Amino acid sequence: MKTQLDQQLQFHQTALNLQAHRQQLLASNIANADTPHYKARDIDFREALQGALGKQSNLALATTQSRHIAGGGGDVLEGATKYRTELQSAVDGNTVNMDVERAAFAENAIHYEASITFINGLLRGMQTAISGQ
Amino acid sequence: MSMLNVFQIAGSALNAQSLRLNTTASNLANADSVIAEDGQPYRAKQVVFAAKPVGATPPVGGVRDKGAAASVGVQVTQVVESAAPMRLVYEPHNPAANAEGYVEMPNVNVVEEMVNMISASRSYQNNAEVMNTAQTLLQRTLQIGQ
């Protein structure tokens, strides 16, 4: 039986995982700012969170016949990972825009810290309830 | 642990950028080296960057690391020599001059190298900052519940 604390913790844990994953993607983009032909990537956070919480998966195969194989549904993260729209084209085919990446990186770091703060708050609340003080 | 991959990504970028900075330093230092180690004038060198997946360790217990596909670091695949023509300078009294009185000078483009240097140092700073942020976040993660 899942308690309310479990459910809330699970939600924040999922969000934290996705934010860590996104941080990794953004770090890759920043690292490859000078690599020819590198294409910047990012995840659609909303879509990834909904997918990770089991609401939907956009990689599921459409089945129109009873004998069609349903398919595994794919990995949620891979489905939500997309290529960034190019703002300014570069001669070497690189699509990293450092301003965009740095802004996204800083923003994602704040979101990550916010998730940690929420988790800490939940745990502290439970601690207070247990100790009764 | 996907946050740990960030260290590898930024680390590989720092490594690549410092190699680029080294190459630029060599080029600038040898901008006037008429005779290099092979007896020919020094040729400008450039590094070639390529994206390289990091953290793609073999699956542990059949579970593939989901973050491995997302982490792409940088790698220097090769150091190429510039194919630009050598700079010819008219110096008839120079012992290295040819019959017409021209000396072959290195094909280092100083302006290009300065631009490269600034670009490399900016990229290095960015990646160092990425590492700092990742470290802060990881420390916060370890302090959950304390």
Question: Any overview of this molecule?
Answer:
The complex is a heterodimer of chains A (133) and B (146). Chain A is built from 4 helices and 2 strands; from the N terminus they run αβααβα. With 133 residues, chain A is mainly alpha-helical. Chain A has one domain (4-131). In chain A, strands 1-2 form a two-stranded antiparallel sheet. Chain A is flat, with a radius of gyration of 19 Å. The model of chain A has no long low-confidence stretch (mean pLDDT 85). Chain B is an alpha+beta fold. Chain B has one domain. Chain B has helices at residues 2-29, 110-142; strands at 45-53, 72-81, 87-90, 102-105. In chain B, helix 1 packs antiparallel against helix 2 (110-142). The two termini of chain B are 20 Å apart. The chains are: A mainly alpha (133), B alpha+beta (146). The A-B interface holds A 16-17, 20-21, 23-25, 27-28, 30-36, 38, 41, 75, 77-78, 81, 98, 102, 105-106, 109, 112-113, 116, 119-120, 123 and B 2-3, 5-6, 9-10, 12-13, 17, 20, 49-51, 66-67, 69-74, 119-120, 123, 126-127, 130, 133-134, 136-137, 140-141, 144-145. Chain A: This is Flagellar basal body rod protein FlgB. Chain A: InterPro entries: Flag_bb_rod_N (IPR001444), Flagellar_basal_body_rod_CS (IPR019776), FlgB (IPR006300). Chain A: Residues 9-39 form the Flagellar basal body rod protein N-terminal domain. Chain A: It is found in: Bacterial flagellum basal body.
